[in-house]
Amino acid sequence: QKEIARINSVVDTLNEFAQHPRLVMRKLDFNETVRNVLKTFESEINARQIVLEAEWDPDALVTDLDPAYFSQALHNVLKNSIESMPAGGKLRVKTRRNQDLAEVTIADSGKGITDADAPNLFMPFFSTKEKGMGLGLTVANRILRQHDGELTFASGDDGGSAFALRVPLAGADDAD
Fold first, then answer.
1. In the prediction, which pLDDT does 13 show?
2. C-alpha 67: how far from chain center
3. Backbone conformation region of residue 160, classed left if phi is above 0, alpha if psi is from -120 to 50, else beta
4. Which of 24, 38, 71, 157 has an alpha carbon within 20 to 30 A of 89's alpha carbon?
């Protein structure tokens, strides 16, 4: 049964990767969207004894997002960060306005990414995990690009990794 569940997971992941979804955009509160995804990891964060530091932009960051797909992208990034800290650590989540973009930064104190691996992070089937499929960040990157946004990586201040997900604020294209 466990092997069948694993195979089903692999097939689902490959299917998700192969699809080019049609986004259904809605005006959403960016902070609330990020909070909702973060809540889904609450028990895992506690079980791994990870210290969560969350900082929310005080302004309303209204974005045009497909809630399901953006949440999937954020979920993939958060999952990687949390899994990089099996024995505990620090997870920092911060939202902010960055010019005409809403940005969420996910920084962890995990093992980090080597300089040699960094250029390959968003490549399909590249993984530093023993049992990783190498599609989580690839899918997240694709979703962000479909939102006219971006996903970037940097080495974290605590030796881990830091990812920034940026999407346009609602009406940012209408300013001209």
1. 63
2. 13
3. beta
4. 71
